[in-house]
Amino acid sequence: MSAALDRWSPYALAVLRIVTALIFMEHGTQKLLGFPAPPESGTPPLFSLFGIGAILELVGGFLLLIGWFTRPVAFLLAGEMAVAYWMFHAPQSPYPALNGGDAAILYCFVFLLFVFTGPGAWSIDGARQPTGPRHSWGR
Length: 139
Fold this sequence. Notes:
Elements: H1 2-33, H2 49-66, H3 70-89, H4 96-99, H5 102-117, H6 124-127
Helix pairs in contact: 1-2, 1-5, 2-3, 3-5
């Protein structure tokens, strides 16, 4: 049973990467473009802390979606989510269910997982690998 499941793990990892990236990109489009709905506080100035975060969410999310530079992008986004949690959520309450930071924590650790696992199947990183022995950075 384990061997059969192991065979599918690159595809499960790819599905996690793709779904996570799509949902993460939605946060960026909301802040930058007001889609699907503008944030309650309005769209932030582009070069503000929230504006730069929105750019990271949209562009970084897209790069994760296609699986290009997955490991360094995931590292950057994990850091963004750690900063978001400790800067904006944790000061409100030590409990994530009360401070609204549970999504930031989950994103942080999912992105950290991609730093160590790579993108899984269906990625530009995987397609760009040279034939022969696998290199650790690309997959």
